[in-house]
Amino acid sequence: MITALLVSSVLVGSIGLFLYRNRQRYLIHFSPHLLERFLPNALFRPTVDKRPIFFIGFYKTGTNYYSKVFTALGFKVMHDSHWRRGSIRVIEQYDVFNDACLHDFATMYRAYPRAKFILNTRPLRPWLISRLLWIDKIYRDMRPLERRLANPVVRVLWGNDCYYNQERVVTWIRERHAYHQSVLEFFRDKPGKLLVLNLEDPEKLARLGDFLELELAEHAREQKKTNVSRPEDKAAYADLVDSALSEAGIRDPLETL
Question: Are 98 and 60 in contact (CB under 8 A)?
Fold first, then answer.
């Protein structure tokens, strides 16, 4: 057991060092909160009356857009992944939290019972295409073997992947479905704490404003969606996505919300 842990630590450390040295080539952003996120919550006391706003959906569901809206309102926004495990040290420094995958929302709720949670989502098929396009854009300079070697570290740090195949895409579909179900179940008996927000809902900001008791419309008009996929991009990934959807056999119940 000890030998296995040592080997794993050396492997992860080596990959992490490799990624750091090649961060410019691979467009990897190392946040100053990278180490803070691993500090035990037992060392810190959350602010009693703090009311953070947590967007706990997956990335590629309008995170840039929502971050711009709240920044325009004067909130201090973290658009990064280092809060996703509920790190009190990180959460204490911001007001609104966005981005990443597979958040530990239960830990956040226990630490900040006055918090509001938004499950930001979008229909499954365009979400998959956007995720594939993003991976190829961000990790375009990495060779296939490099992507696979780096993937365990990327999963730990950011909750996403830097390579894909049909098996991986099927995993994303099942992962997202299970995560959405767990969020809905957790907040089932906590009225007023969760809002499910579809990026394609034309009334999304009105609903979000009502939920948070904020006026968002004036600032929202100034913001535009970013990372919008072109028709040719969607076509390039269509066969892979359709095949994976067929294999997974899952229709996410949030797809049309």
Answer: no
Question: What region, left, alpha or beta, does residue 9 occupy, with left being phi > 0 and alpha being psi -120 to 50 degrees?
Answer: alpha
Instruction: Tell me the C-alpha distance between 98 and 29, whole Å.
Output: 16
Q: How far apart are CA 78 and CA 86, in angstroms?
A: 13
CB 101 within 8 A of CB 58: yes
Instruction: Give the model confidence (pLDDT) of 88-123 as tens digits.
Output: 999 999 999 999 889 999 999 999 999 999 999 999
What proportions of the chain, in percent to the nearest 5, are helix, strand and coil? 50, 10, 40
Q: Do 93 and 77 form a contact (C-beta atoms < 8 A)?
A: no
Sheet-wide strand order for 116-121: 77-79, 96-98, 53-55, 116-121, 194-198
Distance CA 121, CA 56 (A): 9
What CA–CA distance (Å, rounded) separates 100 from 64? 12
Q: What are the structure tokens assigned to 138, written together? A: 């961000």
Q: Which residue blocks in 33-99 are alpha helix, DSSP H?
A: 63-72, 88-91
Question: What's the pLDDT tens digit per position in 18-32?
Answer: 666 666 555 556 667
Q: Distance between CA atoms of 61 and 53, rounded to whole angstroms?
A: 16
Residue 207 backbone zone (phi > 0: left; psi -120 to 50: alpha; other: beta): alpha
